[in-house]
Specification:
The protein is an alpha+beta fold. The chain has helices at residues 9-18, 23-35, 37-50, 64-74, 89-110, 189-194; strands spanning 118-125, 132-138, 143-148, 158-165, 173-178, 184-186, 200-207, 220-225. The radius of gyration is 47 Å and the shape is rod-shaped.
Length: 228
């Protein structure tokens, strides 16, 4: 039987409007609304009958004092949301997430140390044409880098030792013991300052572990003037 011909159609419309129609009955009524024009028209009729018609003639805006009394009498403040819930949290979250992403992407560049620059300060030369070692000093004068023309390794029973011969003929100072001429040596601030024009750099062959006397004891294989 179609609901449009149901003798209690008006009652069904009322139940639907007030919300007491539930479950399968409500789903059946909604199918009838879509399929039977008579049901849709009858529901529309009752919607118009039940609708409240307000008139602006009866509208009176309450004063602020009345609103305050209503809030006080009904204790409406307990229903007010806390201040932080009124902030547009999703916008704050979006801005925070964007800033975090920008910082994460930029951090490797912000935290990247400045590149170390080197300047050639001497070219040590030996007797053979290919016995040549270029000496480079870092911009902070804390690191010496030796770059030989060809790889040269010390034997198991020997070591190379780099010496700074100060200007004026003072005693040589050891800058480091090397296992190979291709090496880097860390300098103290004092030694970095002494690398000045007029001084010389030299490499001698010493017993394994370096000179036992604090001065060169073996043959000097390369030597050169400090230029800066």
């Amino acid at each position: 039987m179609k609901l449009g011909a149901h003798p209690e159609l008006d009652a069904l419309c009322g139940e639907y409007l007030v919300g007491t129609m539930r479950g399968a009955a409500r789903r059946r009524f909604e199918r009838a609304l879509a399929q039977e024009s008579a049901v849709a028209r009858r529901l529309q009729y009752w919607e118009q009958v039940a609708a409240v018609n307000y008139s602006e003639r009866f509208f009176v805006a309450p004063s602020a004092a009345v609103w305050k009394r209503i809030q006080r009498d009904l204790a409406l403040r307990r229903f007010s949301p806390p201040w932080y819930s009124r902030i547009e949290l999703w916008r704050i979250w979006a801005v925070s997430a964007s800033l975090a992403l920008i910082l994460m992407l930029a951090w490797p560049y912000l935290n990247r140390p400045a590149p170390v620059t080197y300047l050639t300060v001497a070219v040590m030369q030996g007797k053979a044409p290919d016995a040549q070692v270029t000496v480079e000093l870092s911009g902070d004068r804390r690191t010496l880098r030796l770059r030989p023309a060809r790889p040269v390794l010390a034997s198991a029973s020997q070591s190379f030792e780099l010496w700074l011969i100060p200007a004026g003929g003072a005693a040589p100072q050891s800058l480091g013991v090397l296992g190979a001429l291709d090496s880097e040596i860390r300098l103290s601030p004092e030694l970095g300052i002494r690398l000045a024009p007029g001084a010389k750099l030299a490499v001698s062959v010493e017993p394994a572990g370096g000179s036992p006397t604090g001065g060169p004891t073996g043959p000097v294989i390369v030597i050169g003037d400090v230029r800066t």
